[in-house]
Amino acid sequence: MALPAITETKANLMKSFLIDRYKKGGALRLGESPEPALRDNDVMVEIHAAGVNPVDSKIRDGEFKLILRYRLPLILGSDLAGVVTRVGSKVTRFSPGDEVYANSGQDRIGTFAEFIAIDQANVALKPKNLTMDEAASIPLVALTAWQALVERAKLQKGQKVLIHAGSGGVGTIAIQLAKHLGAHVATTTSTANIALVKGLGADVVVDYKKDDFEKVLQGYDVVLNSLGKDTLEKSLAVLKPGGKLISISGPPDPDFARQNGSGWLLQQVMRLLSSGIRRKSKRRGIRYSFHFMTANGGQLAKITSLIEAGDIRPVMDRVFPFERTNEALAYVETGRAKGKVVVTVK
């Protein structure tokens, strides 16, 4: 799917972290870019903080270049918190001075910068009880958890859900959301993070360094997977017939390809990549699906209500200054972060 580049002005320049070409493990370049132009439905946001996510590394490495066709050079980053400075002619939801947070959407990334123009449909007012840094940590992981557990799994009170990697960005929010929905929550983590995930509400914690989760857990309704192929396949043993296996780490399935507007050839590639897990799931009466988060300001507003009510809280690991964005990205790539990593832009 070809994606439109952000239209740029030539008037004002802003600091930004960019890539000039796809390169695995490559460093981002700190440079100056034109401030983005404002479309009719856009809000211009002065970015105060930006969340750092594993997907940023994957885009830099070129893993999504067949699906997300960006124009280079490209500013990375999709999570932000900041202040609205201008609004487009058709904007009705926000005004200059509003404190907001958002995921920009994969078609208009670029939050590792001083400003960004975003469609108002992707934006929500910042939770009043969060700092800018805390708010920037929320959008991608919270929307992922919401869309997987509420929209796709339709998780109900009393159901049992296994959330892998409970101390990670998605895991820390997904545990809290699942508990809010009234589910019985199990999670996997390392010995060092057991207290953290129990504090978030996990009912059962499997220390993956000591136990095999597929031998300890059974009769679950939903599994949310963010790990590799081995964990994905072992998760089938945990689910009861009729259960749902939702993966945010792949492999992508034909439904995702169709929803993403992929061409026939790419649809067939995704069909082939997911054929093994779909076949094994079908044998057990389990539904496998791949989920790729989509930006949604309306859903983010519902998450805001849960945050302000104290049902969900951010879990922060480290905050880096803007000039150390490369270090922040490298730290996320280690896979050792407890919760989220953020860069302070302003």
TrEMBL record:
Residues of the Enoyl reductase (ER) domain: 25-343
Keywords of this entry: Oxidoreductase
A Pfam family hit: ADH_N
Domain of life assignment: Bacteria
Keyword Oxidoreductase: yes
Name used for this protein in its record: NADPH:quinone oxidoreductase
